[in-house]
Design goal:
The chain is of the alpha/beta class. The two termini are 18 Å apart.
Length: 177
């Protein structure tokens, strides 16, 4: 299974490396001769100053939750150019305390009920392709904690009307699907 990059676009296994990266760099350098094109590796997530989670999910939701450092960091930003640059510089300013991945509508209800009763902010996280800053838990300081509600497990086409070209889809589906 492919591993999504925590800091940039795409999957880590698909990253441009070696001779392919050198050829791409040469091509860009020919188009932008004044550009500074040195390779900048992403920092190790363990080296980032990320606070420990402030909240824990109840046992009933534990199977849906992750407080893994890389998972949390990957859910604290979108995919805009500014996000990629900040990540490469190690600036991860807003990181959720938990990442929860509901599988059913009832899971979503249970997560939202817990968050409401515990004073925890919920930030929806669809396919992770946001370029407008909407997935950053910037409001988290006003709450006991924050969770990224990752809808990737809710990625089904529920209904499709080929005549009207209308579809009812779940929140975690990606455009190509």
């Amino acid at each position: 299974m492919a591993t999504r990059s925590w800091w940039g676009w795409g999957n880590r296994e698909d990253a441009v490396t070696g001779a392919e990266r050198e050829a791409l760099t040469e091509r860009v350098a020919a188009l932008l001769p004044e550009a500074e094109l040195t390779v900048h590796e992403a920092p190790d997530p363990k080296s980032l100053n990320v606070p420990a989670p402030r909240v824990r999910v109840p046992d009933t939701l534990a199977g849906l939750a992750s407080e893994d450092l890389v998972d949390r960091v990957a859910h604290g930003h979108g995919q805009a150019f500014r996000d990629v640059v900040r990540n490469l510089l190690g600036r991860v300013d807003h990181v959720p305390d938990q990442v929860v991945r509901p599988r059913t509508e009832q899971d979503v209800v249970d997560i939202l009920d817990w968050c409401a009763s515990a004073g925890v902010a919920v930030v929806p996280f669809g396919g992770g392709t946001s370029v407008v800053g909407g997935v950053e838990p910037r409001c988290a300081d006003a709450y006991a904690g924050s969770v990224a509600l990752d809808t990737s497990r809710l990625g089904e086409i529920l209904e499709l009307d080929r005549t009207s070209r209308a579809a009812r889809i779940q929140a975690g589906i990606l455009g190509p699907a």
